[in-house]
Amino acid sequence: MSETHKYDAALAADIEARWQDYWERHGTYETPNPSGDLAGDPERAARPKKFIMDMFPYPSGAGLHVGHPLGYIATDVYARFQRMTGHNVLHALGFDAFGLPAEQYAVQTGTHPRVSTEANIRTYKAQLRRLGLGHDQRRSFATIDPDYYRWTQWIFLRIFNSWYDPDAGRARPIEELVARFEAGEQATPDGRPWGELTAAERADVLSGYRLAYASDSPVNWCPGLGTVLANEEVTADGRSERGNFPVFKSKLRQWNMRITAYADRLLDGLDTVDWPEAIKLQQRNWIGRSEGARIHFQVGEKGDGGTVTVFTTRQDTLFGATYMVLAPEHHLIDAVVPAAWPEGTHAVWTGGHATPAEAVAAYRKQAAAKSDVERQAEAKEKTGVFTGAFAVNPVNGERIPVFIADYVLLGYGTGAIMAVPAHDSRDFAFARAFELPMRCVVEPADGRGTDPAEWADAFDAKDARVINSAGDGITLDGLTVPEAKSRMNSWLQERGLGEGTVNFRLRDWLFSRQRYWGEPFPIVYDEDGVAHPLPDEMLPLELPEVEDYSPRTFDPDDADTQPETPLSRNEEWVNVTLDLGDGPKRYRRETNTMPNWAGSCWYQLRYLDPHNDERLVDPEIERYWMGPREGMPTGGVDLYVGGSEHAVLHLLYARFWQKVLFDLGHVSSDEPYHKLFNQGMIQAYVYRDSRGFPVPAAEVEERDGTFLYQGQPVTRELGKIGKSLKNVVAPDEIFAAYGADTLRLYEMAMGPLEVSRPWETRAVVGQFRLLQRLWRNVLDEATGEVTVVGDEPDDETLRAMHRAIDGVTQDLEQLRFNTAIAKITELNNHVTKLARVPRAAAETLVLLIAPLAPHIAEELWARLGHGESVTRQAFPVADPAYLVAETVTCVVQVRGKIRARLEVPPAVTEAELEALALADPGVVAALGGAGIRKVIVRAPKLVNIVPA
Hints:
Elements: H1 9-26, H2 42-45, E1 49-54, H3 70-84, E2 88-91, H4 100-109, H5 113-130, H6 146-160, E3 162-165, E4 170-173, H7 174-182, H8 199-207, E5 212-222, E6 227-229, E7 248-257, H9 263-269, H10 277-287, E8 289-299, E9 306-312, E10 323-326, H11 333-336, H12 347-350, H13 356-368, H14 372-376, E11 385-392, E12 399-404, E13 416-419, H15 425-433, E14 470-471, E15 474-475, H16 481-494, E16 498-504, E17 509-510, E18 523-525, E19 531-533, H17 571-574, E20 575-579, E21 584-589, H18 603-608, H19 619-626, E22 639-642, H20 650-663, E23 676-678, E24 682-688, E25 694-695, E26 700-703, E27 706-709, E28 712-713, E29 715-719, H21 731-737, H22 740-749, E30 757-758, H23 765-778, H24 795-813, H25 817-832, H26 839-849, H27 854-863, E31 888-894, E32 897-904, H28 910-919, H29 921-927, E33 932-938, E34 942-947
Parallel strand pairs: 1-2, 1-22, 10-12, 22-23, 24-30, 31-34
Antiparallel strand pairs: 3-4, 5-6, 5-7, 7-17, 8-9, 8-11, 8-16, 10-13, 11-12, 14-15, 18-19, 18-21, 20-21, 24-25, 24-29, 26-27, 27-28, 31-32, 33-34
C-alpha cells in the first residue's frame, strides 16, 4: 500500500499550515461589532452573543511549553462550538507586556525592554498560530502599545479625578466635591472656608478623598529589588515573590488606589457572578468585613498626647481592657514617648533600655525585619516594649500603659488595640510575659472561675454573660454578649467616645513601582509639590529613553535606604515646561511607574473596540458584548478562563476599576467577568539525582520500574514544568511528531479541565491514532479518494450517532472536553467496524470533532465536497427519537445474588417482567424447586426473588 495519503506527522503539518493560511486570508475568525458590519446583517445581528476570554499571557523569552496552552485550547474549543451553535463569538488574545522580567533582561544585556518583549511576542504569536487558535487578530494588542496605555493613563486620571460618595454609594467627579466645599455644604477638616485655603492646602484636603492619591504610606520596601511591593507580592516568610529578597516595612511617598471605599460593593458583587466558590471565599476573606466599634482613648497625663482610636469586635469587653498596644509604625508614638521612664515602671517593660525613646527605636528596627505573616504567627514568646505613656480607658477612667508590639499591624483596623488579656489568647500571652493585670468580664461556663491568674489561657465565648462591667452611667452585667455590644455602642455614641462601625481587612492598593518598564503616571508637580493631571490631549505620556534601566538596588538587608528610580535620572524628561491652562510653567514629572497590574485591569474593554482613538469604548459596542442581561444582572464577559493564583490580585483590582468606570457612566457593566473558570495545571515528572538536583527529564531511562540518568538511579516526582526543573516539553516537539490537532486533543482528553494532570509524552499517540482512524473512515490511504457512501445509516448507527451528538453537545457546553472526546472516540470506533461508511455518519464525526481538531476537520469537510469552512457550519442536533433506549438491562437476584440479566423493553410492565424473570433458566436453577415467598419488581431494571 502506498503511504502517500496516510495521515502522518508530515501530512498533518501540511494540512495545518494550509488551513491556518486560509483562516488568516479569509478572516474566518473576525467578529464584527454591532455598530459596524453587523448592523448590515440582520440575521447575524439577531444571534445570541458570547464573549470568551483568557487571562492573557506575559510573553517570556522561553516561549510556550506544553503546560501553557491548556486554557487557550479550552477557550478555543468552546468558542468554535459556540460559533457552530449559532452565536456571535468574540474571542481574542493580547499580551500583558510590562513587567519585571523584561526589565531585568534589559539590566543584564542592555537590550531595550521593548525590543526583547516584542521579539517574545512574535515567538508566542507563531506558536499560538501553530496551535490553530481562532482569535480575531484585528483585536490583538499588547499593554506596551502607546495606543493602549494611553487609555490606561486616561482611566487613571478618571480615578484620580473622582471621589467615593458614601451617601450615593458610588464614585463621583471630584469637581462635585469641590463645589460642595465652595458652597459650604461640606466642611473642611479644620473648619476654615474653602476660599481661605491655599492651593497646597486644598490639594491636601482633596487627596483625602480622591480614589487615586499619593501619601506617605507604610510600604513593603525591598532594597534588593530597589522597589516597593504590594502586600500580595510578599511571600509568607517576608520575602519578595520575585527574587526572594528580604522585605521591610518603611514609609515612602507612594501612589495608592482607594479600593477600600468599594469594600462593600466588592463583597456584594460576588453574589451576582458565576465564579468558583473557592475564589469567592478567598476574595471575601481578603476583604475581611467585620462589625464592631471604634473607641477613642485619650493618651498622656491629661490627654495632651492626643487621641488613639481602636477598632474592636468585642466592645462588650471594654471594662476588661488593662493596657493598650500600638503597631510599631503608628504615627502617634513619637508624640507620646516621654523623655524618661515614669516612676515605678516595671523593669520587664523597658527591654533593658535607659530611655523610652531608645527602647522604641530599637524595637521598631527589630519589627521592621519581620513580615506581616511572621508578626501574626502564634509565637510562643511575645515581644514588645513600653512607650512610657499611659492612656485612659473611657469607660472607667483607669490609666492603662501603652505598649508597642509587633503582633499589632498598622494595616489592620487602626493600628492600635485595647488589650483584654482575660479574653484574647495573644493578649493573655503578652500580659503574662510583661506581668500586666487581667480582669475577667465574660463569665466562664467551664468551671475555671473568674480569676485569670489561675487560668492556662484566655476564655472567649460569644454566648456567655457579661460580668464586672459597671461604671459611669452604664452597666453591662448580666447581659449577653450581643446585648452588651449594642448597649456599649449607644453609650459610646452618646458621649462622643466612639461608635459602632464596620471594618475591613482590605487595605488601599499600593499603586506605584520604582521601575522603568511600566506605564508612566500622567501627573506633574508644581513648585509647591501639588499634583496636576495632564490633560487628555497630552496622552499618551510615553517612556523616555534612559541609559540605565535598573532602579538603584541596595544591600538586601539594609532597611535604612530609599528608592531611586530609573526615570529620575533623565532630567530633561523629568523637568518640563507645560501649559496646563494657566500659562507655561515649570513642572516635575512623577518618576514612579504603574504596577504591572494596571494594564490587565481593563483589557476586556479594549478587545471590544481596539482601534477607537476617540473614546475608551463605544457605548453601544460595550452594551452589546458586556451589558447586563437575563441571568447576568451585572453584565461582564460570558466566560473567563485562567489560573486561580490571581484570586486576590488581578481579579480584585479589575473589579475595582470596572466599578469606578461603571459609576462614572463609561460602561454599562458593573462586573468585568460574569463566569470564571479556573483550569488546572499540566505537570511533568521531575527527576533528581542523589544530590537532589534536577536532571534532564528527556534523557532519563526507565528500566524495570527504576529510573536512570547516565546509568545512575534518580528519583521521580510530579512538579511544575519549567527550565529550572529541566522538564520542559515544547509544543514544537509535539507538532513535529504528531501535529497540532493531536496536541489539542491530548490536552483536552487528559482529564477534567479544572483538575491538574501529569504530562506523559508517550500517551499522546493515543489521540493521534484517533485522528488516523477518522481519516481512514473517510478516505482511502492509498489513493486519497473519499470512500464514504450515500447509503442511509442503519438503525444501530443512527442511535450511535445521535447518542454521540447529544452527549458531545452537553459536554462541550459544560467544558467537559475529556468526556466529549471519549464519546467521539466511541462513535468513531463504531463507524470503523462498518463495511461501508455512510456519508451521514462521516459528516457527523467531522462536525463533532471540528471544535477540538479544526485542521483535520476542515480538510475532511472540504474533501467531502463542501465549499465553505467547517467553522461556520451548524453543529449537529440530536434527534430525541434515537435517544430512547431499545432495551434496558434488568438484573434478577435470588437470595441477593445476581442470577440473570434480561434485556427488556423500557416500557415493560411489572407483571411481564416478573414472568420473564421466573422463566429464566438461571433463575430456575438457582431456585432448585423451592417455593417463592416474595417477588419484588422494580421495572424495568430490577427483580428480586425471595425463596420460601
